Amino acid sequence: MLNTVIIGASGYTGAELSKMVSRHPQLILSGLYVSANSLDAGKPLSDLHGQLKGIVDLPLLPLTDIKTTAAAADIVLLATAHEVSHDIATTFLDAGCQVFDLSGAFRVKADDFYQQYYGFEHQHSEWLDNAAYGLAEWNDDAIRQAQLIAVPGCYPTASQLALKPLVVADLLDRQQWPVINAVSGVSGAGRKATMTNSFCEVSLHAYGLFTHRHQPEISHHLNCDVIFTPHLGNFKRGILATITAKLASGVTADDVTAVLESAYLKTSDQHAVRLLGNKTAQLDDVVGSCFCDIGWQVQGEHIILTAAIDNLLKGAASQAMQCINIRNGFSQLTALV
Amino acid sequence: MLNTVIIGASGYTGAELSKMVSRHPQLILSGLYVSANSLDAGKPLSDLHGQLKGIVDLPLLPLTDIKTTAAAADIVLLATAHEVSHDIATTFLDAGCQVFDLSGAFRVKADDFYQQYYGFEHQHSEWLDNAAYGLAEWNDDAIRQAQLIAVPGCYPTASQLALKPLVVADLLDRQQWPVINAVSGVSGAGRKATMTNSFCEVSLHAYGLFTHRHQPEISHHLNCDVIFTPHLGNFKRGILATITAKLASGVTADDVTAVLESAYLKTSDQHAVRLLGNKTAQLDDVVGSCFCDIGWQVQGEHIILTAAIDNLLKGAASQAMQCINIRNGFSQLTALV
Amino acid sequence: MLNTVIIGASGYTGAELSKMVSRHPQLILSGLYVSANSLDAGKPLSDLHGQLKGIVDLPLLPLTDIKTTAAAADIVLLATAHEVSHDIATTFLDAGCQVFDLSGAFRVKADDFYQQYYGFEHQHSEWLDNAAYGLAEWNDDAIRQAQLIAVPGCYPTASQLALKPLVVADLLDRQQWPVINAVSGVSGAGRKATMTNSFCEVSLHAYGLFTHRHQPEISHHLNCDVIFTPHLGNFKRGILATITAKLASGVTADDVTAVLESAYLKTSDQHAVRLLGNKTAQLDDVVGSCFCDIGWQVQGEHIILTAAIDNLLKGAASQAMQCINIRNGFSQLTALV
Amino acid sequence: MLNTVIIGASGYTGAELSKMVSRHPQLILSGLYVSANSLDAGKPLSDLHGQLKGIVDLPLLPLTDIKTTAAAADIVLLATAHEVSHDIATTFLDAGCQVFDLSGAFRVKADDFYQQYYGFEHQHSEWLDNAAYGLAEWNDDAIRQAQLIAVPGCYPTASQLALKPLVVADLLDRQQWPVINAVSGVSGAGRKATMTNSFCEVSLHAYGLFTHRHQPEISHHLNCDVIFTPHLGNFKRGILATITAKLASGVTADDVTAVLESAYLKTSDQHAVRLLGNKTAQLDDVVGSCFCDIGWQVQGEHIILTAAIDNLLKGAASQAMQCINIRNGFSQLTALV
User: Fold this and answer.
1) CA angle, C269 as apex, C263 and C272 as ends, to 5°?
2) Domains in chain D with CATH codes
3) CA distance A33 to chain B (A)
4) pTM above the 0.95 mark?
5) Is B60 exposed, middle or buried (0-12, 13-18, 19+ CB in 10 A)?
6) Cα of C192 to nearest chain D Cα, Å
7) What's the complex ipTM?
8) DSSP code at position C219
9) B 242-301 residues with CB below 8 A of D?
10) Would you say the C-alpha torsion C232, A188, B200, A101 has a positive or negative sign?
11) Any CB–CB contact under 8 A between D210 and chain C?
């Protein structure tokens, strides 16, 4: 049994993680932490998330002494802000913990990336170099050996799971950048009071045109330029990505199907991708589940792929849990289905 | 032409008022004001409410000198917080303006009411005594003669329009308090960033059990005890009230129909109530409109009434406009249909 | 291991049942059936309910030979229309199956009830007499011994779980009927194409005033007259009931709390009710879960209770599973949390 | 005063048209028609659309004798199915009526188009040749002179209003097809009971990949190949289109702004497009209004435009009214703002 702590447990992702850890047969949920000065410290997690009442009633503890917390933990889940993860991860790592970071702090090994897209200078380049990128279906070997796993976020997960088989097999025309349009539920913005998240202000729209930090993350890990346009939708959870791309000369629909099936038609235990063939992904089919649904159609030189995930699960918490399972030799979807 | 200013113009009600005043043939929208230190001062109203672009692009002005503002205004609409209305109304009144207050500051003439339910001591009892309660369908004589009109809010409007004909005609069993359950859209809480209004936190529920300030307002103006339970719904606009009451001995369904039709079956110009007979009120039929829909059914000694309004219109802005129209001798639904 | 078949598996409740049976350690999902002439026969269940892909891909079978189906089944779940359950239950019962009927066909043992509220004459009074009413928290002794369990539906479950402790302890003033207002998600109407369920036509409103068949079911099993007003809400799943009642003379808030805690403060394994004290139930806290949340407040002679459930789970499928667990000596929330 | 009749008045577009005609100072709403065998014949329109109660209570008449109806009408609005418009338009045209057809029956003058995309052979090629395409901001000269105006639908209106200035000015790289992703509210599918429109089945998803009939309509009228992917959204009204394109070599952001402003920065009376500059269009800003909001941003060789309309208004009814106003010399937004 592995002692597991969640740092930043008060948010939506933290709540999902706490549920999963609770029902995992090989993990013990040994501590829920919030920042030392949080007003939520001392409250049961179920006070903030009523659906957890009777399921996870553990109190939120103030993270006052990281070393002591680290000493008692085997596995640490960081559901914290990017800067916070950047600052505290190494203490847990130095104590020997496995660290699964759900922030962006260790995802991209590229000069100036953090300065440009996150507004801070990265101080831990050695850990950045050694972090495994936790796209579970693609990096299981690296995940199995790493001490630090940088779990990708919601938009990059949906986008990469759909595009990566095509890019790896070199089926796309590299002259024309794939266009990724994605719509996310409001929970993607986190649990906080802002005008943007205010119920009456939420109205379907695009944002972050050409400038969203997930665009370089997707391009970096795909090794392929893309145009990525995120949208805010009028729903709580889920992401739907619609991806339009031009195929390389001579590539057929059958070629596309072959590489997608080769990537994802394994036994269900080994991954969380469901292939829909020429059907399109439906948001509600994945909300509340750990799966990424992918559909596709080809006409002439063009392909359209649709991919849907629950942004808080496959886009955050359940993907972190897949990584824990891979890292520790458990069946990959343990505690997830 | 009457110069009309809106104080507190940046909120949802302010936006609706500005549209109505703009299209009113006898009114000039001569100023939109926010508090002197508001960060919104200087912005066009349509920057905050995109749907007004090209319709009301006037800038929001800081209310720095009330007397000067008052001197140039014939009509003042206060879409301000209760305390603010309480504090500034008299300056406008002293300058001779007609004041239509959409806050609760002048609605209830009862000792201790403001201390108990609004948390401040009322300083202007003479104006409180002279204010007309702006329930347009019932108080037109008083409205026509008053300088200060206290426009009732959303829950009290729906509740009273349904119950008042029955109470006035003494059709209810006074031993058993009518039970009013009402569900309001989130816009009723105003335009601001709070956890309660946060998109992901909104979840249908009851609040303010036994303690909501609209309960004594309803009871006071109906002259009838009631049990009022407000609910927050997962929608932006509208209120649906379902009212269950016991009829006085011997009262029949026909008696009920007779008093409701007597109250509201006038020519459409004279009021904004639509009677549905034994159909039930539907929220979406009134959202975006100035109407209150009322349906009812009787079985044995019991009656159930349903009443629906748009909380920002008949529950605020359009009712204020009805009051302006009544006060100034215009056709009652001018600028509203 | 018990062979379990679901009749009427294509609907929303059938889909939920199939998921639960699949993950139940002591049950085998041995057959999913639809009516013999259904166009869905032959399709995998996951074709109709995409979220089940990879989880329940069994085909829907036409129910052509009930006796053969019965012979191979230990447990039968009827998620069928009332008339269908009425007609086919006995064949399964005669074959010795345990039958859990989610329709209304065996819920109320009262003369003329089926003629008046369901429009058919009941032909199986002996089974009606012997059926246990599957309100899991209250009838476990009867459920444990019955061969036929009539699982209560959504509105009656929420209403009775809140009111029954008070009625049993005789805390209510019987002269004044409790007023139950409840709002249900659209899934309560089943999976079918109707104008009423059409996305653009759904608009919060009350329906079935004084005439809904759940009113007599609630009154019968509570042994207490009630006024029940159902509403259709603009959401897919969940029910929120708000109940207003008058207390018997001398009853205090502490008395109320005592009887509710006595009824439901057991170890969590024994039931699916969560007490919220003076907080109010929130719809989203129970959607997707097997729990009924109950809150309450007392003022003077009046009490307001709020109760929330997922209409498809505690209001249908998970309550049926609780009954299966009780009947077969499994831990009560097996496969549910 | 012009006698105006609406054929197919019972649907969502018909309801909007009836409201507009009612409040138009130069039009008389002289008849609302449904098909001869419609079950709705005889009912007041407000029975089907409760929000019209007290506003349009005219009865729906069965269209039994088209010639007689035509003889009494100056203006005919066809809110009918494509085939029906195709079949009945000529009778109204022969009688000398102005016909504004909101269906697709006369929009595209291209061989085989109707056979391929609408499934019928077009029988009225002379009228097809003479019909004006009612994209109000672009075809006012043609509209002014035509007897038959084919009003474009929802997706083509949003898409063309955004792209047409760029195509006309030849600012796009023609080698790379613009990618149009659009999300529509459910009302776009019309007022009918289908599983697809059923409240619980609606789930954000793409449909009609590569095959939607609006793709060739957009390409034809833009004279530019496009990839168009429609989506169904979880809301009642509105369309948001996000368009990604590659600019021709050397084209700058200033060039783009110049052509958009040249197209649409006129006095507000002349059109219904609002330019947002580098802001993005927000769905709720246009729902309930006649406007199309357009925003855009350029980075390097790429441009992203966002366009939002109310699918029932600028995408149907209000655009038809703009056409009526243009055709008859009225101010273009009469009855619309």
Assistant:
1) 55
2) 2-151+316-327 (3.40.50.720), 154-309 (3.30.360.10)
3) 20
4) yes
5) buried
6) 6
7) 0.96
8) H
9) 268, 274, 276, 282, 284-286, 288-289, 291, 293
10) positive
11) no
